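re: that complex we talked abt at group meeting.

here r the seqs, copy pasted straight from the sheet so there may be weird spacing, ignore it
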Amino acid sequence: MSNGKGGAVVTGAARGIGRELALGLLKDGFGVVIADVDPDAGSKTVDELAKEFGDKVIFTRTDVTKRAEVKAAVDACRKTFGSINVMINNAGFNKPEPFLEASEDIWRAILEVNSLGVLIGIQEAAKAMIEDGVKGKIINTASIAGRSGFPDFAPYSASKAAVISLTQAGARALADKGITVNAFGPGVVDTPLWEKLDADLLAMGASSAPGEAMGALAGQILLGRVAKPADVVGTVQFLWSPQSDYMTGQVVLIDGGMILQ
Amino acid sequence: MSARTGVLTGAAGGIGKATTERLLKEGWSLVLVDRDESIKDVAASTQTSGDQKVLGVAADITDPSTYGEIDDAVAEIGAPLKLLALVAGVLQEVGAIETLAIEEWDRVFNINLRANMLLMKHFIPALKAADGAAIVTVSSWYGKSGHGFFGAYCASKAGLISLTHTAADELSKDKIRVNTVAPGNVATSMHLDALTEEAEKRGISFEEMKKTEWDKIPLERAAYPSEIADAINFLAGPDSNYITGATIDVNGGCLFS
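got the structure back, here u go
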């Protein structure tokens, strides 16, 4: 690999924010593993990105709740690109339910992917970085919902608060290895996750027309619009670049001004 | 990128100088403001390229009657004012609330909070006219948590974070984003002086004091001024276009919030 920056793994990179981050990493000179549970969407994304970036982008079928699969994605990154320098634990999903009807099944499924998946991702990436002597950057996708609970998606809010806690715990655990752990917290982003959420809220009766739920949330945003996936790339690039070397355990909100704190 | 001007306060200090260097690299023209007359020499000694201009203005930011000179410098540069970087700040004389002189409280609040409100107030019309601008304040991790013997400093920085949120709310419709960088310990003379003073207060050596403070930092060192400058530059530039009312905590992990 000539003049590359090493390798990166992005979970949940088949679409949405993960895909934009993968593209940003590729443009920045990293080799990227698209680690996603959906082989069809993942392979399609790799094929599309490969048109410009050739063999700098590969796919691994990765269920982030399965340690062996996460480890396999990390190892594929080391094998293909020499090392893992950046790990972005981005895979996550949401399923709204009215608060009083929030169920154990949905709770377990969301916490498993959004929280346990992040713990495993931090651990497996860090173990590889330590073994290789890489002062890497681990970045987790949190959410404004991790800072402020939303009534129609309590499990999601709790799972993202857990992401923030895991970011802090990981930062303390790994600081003396030269590994930093930070998170970014998107607000309302025009992604498949939010499109589905909007449809689910409509089906649930929490809104009365398509786009209404998302629009109502957008009305609270100071900058007056929901984010595009590309809006988060600049910030996450800041977090994977040497410019943020003195930051660890922190959360940067990219919410257009929703949660002022 | 087309010509654009930034006003930077506290420009003769450690973070100010690093920020100047970083912003110049990004193509900004700058008005450097500091109370010290040496700021003119600082401005004259900067490395510029193309039609970049850097002017130094010695002004007391607590006194709005001195802002006219800053306006003149902005006008002389001639490019729209798209950045107000409020770096100037002071530490307090270390001391308990019980014995804190109200004059010291007022001095710290005047510089760290009141002056920043006055500067925002003064420059908001020009920033609005620029059709897309940013205000970046420099607060502190001490503004997110209280610490013994730093009552005035902590409260003034907490106030600055709150002022940042209010300004973000008021100015979003005018395409002005307002954010803050909250540094932890930064290896500037201000930080080292504070360690010296606190060591005296606690009756321990400077090295012991430094170890006590730095051991609390997961990354085990103070920040380089350039690392704070990087965050200011990030908030001033297009990579943070969707961020307003936010705090970037550049503290080596000494506080999670």
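couple things i noticed - Chain B touches chain A at residues 165, 168-169, 172-173, 177, 184, 218-220, 223-224, 227, 230-231, 233-234, 238-253, 256 (CB under 8 Å). The CA atoms of residues 187 and 222 of chain B lie 6 Å apart.
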